[in-house]
Cytochrome P450
Amino acid sequence: MPAVPSIPLFKVLPNVLRTARRPIEVFQEYHQIYGDNLLLSVGGSRRTHLTADPEVIQHVLQRNHRNYDKSEIQATQMAKYLGKGLLTNTGQPWLTQRRLIQPGFHRKRLDSLVTEMRAVIERQCAQLDAARAAGSTLSLHGFTRSAVFRIIARAIFTDGFSEQETMELNRTMDAIQAFIIYPVRMPFLRKPLRWIGREGKYLAMATSIRQRLQERIDERRAGGAQDDLLQMLLDSRYEDDGTPMADEQLIDEIMILFAAGHETSANALAWTIWLLLQHPEELAKVKAEIAAAKTLGPLDLDGVKNLPYLTQVIEESMRLYPPAWITDRVALGPDVANGYAIDTHTVVGIFIYGLHHNPRYWPEPERFWPERMSAAAKKDRHPYAFLPFGAGPRLCIGNHFAMLEMQLFLAQVLGDYTLELTTPAAEVGVKPYITLHMDREVGVRVC
Ligand code: HEM
């Protein structure tokens, strides 16, 4: 059995701070030296099998998924602030919740969300009209982030939050998510963060969001039923005893839907627009496709099928800049994956960014090349070489929701407006928080 190359501690330790700040750069360097699978201690403590190998990833996420659970990063550290919703829950409680929530993301449900999504996007485009009229610039990420936060807020609470409350909620969620990376990436900072009151500050923020959510839930119970995700969660009943979800659990699930469902899509949209503004040929193709699709009928769940090239562009953008750039599992028992031994308790770091840039599966991995996402090209590739939404039983529950909102958003924005970058020559790098951000503010002008 081949041994997984292990990076000696004396090589990992000097890189601890650089790994905390620029983990992607460091992990990519390790993969170049040691291959697709390697062992290291992240943050100087956890024994991690880092992998950019689609065979190992398929084994862990799908073939032998029962031998793996979420590590303490998601199940404890993130759960502390965001609660035990689908993303952070584990074992049988996760499965029970997944079965209950899955119908909320079925096609019929998405179909009824199209009108809401389009209404939010249209209102959001008023910002583009205003910027054009005033000759002012917009923050690209700020624009996409507020759009998708409004979409997820409307999908959960059709009647819920005022505009001001939505934006406040957005700011608070973003602040919590930005803070979480410190205790996650630098375990040695956990106690100091508690001592200096930082942990308490963000826990208090999470508590204030939870209180607001509880108020909205109480209001809904007192008022009439609506056609939204909250209602679906309120009306659902556990198969075994027919009871409804407890409010604490309901709030956990809503927290997670907000957290998992907005930064990811907001980053994917910002990267996609930024890429297209630098690739005029591909942008022209996208615009022509959108114009043609609009003549064929309304852009709804069926209408977006007339946007195959735009879909390839979104996929290629998520290959280059996967919003969820890494995830992990911990081995419950000893295992062998693609010939490599994985010991009990080993954390498997599924390095999605590394997988998507692996030259063994992606020729010219740094090139933006949407044609490689055509159906024909996909047939010849390892099915686990492209995993923006994860895979196996814990595949992203919001994957179709996300694709739909991104297609609708881009069709509207790119179809109706001409955008340009305020500083087209400026380099933009990656900033890996929990999701993959741009490392600087990118401004756009509306012509
Ligand atoms: C471009 C957008 C998105 C990307 C790239 C993305 C990516 C992912 C990935 C990679 C996972 C799996 C994590 C793992 O296996 O450890 C995941 C899980 C999840 N995502 Fe998404 N996501 C996106 C949008 C959304 C949206 C819009 C929602 C909700 C409306 C959502 C809700 C969730 C939830 C609840 C889970 C946990 C599922 C479970 O474990 O059962 N995501 N997402």
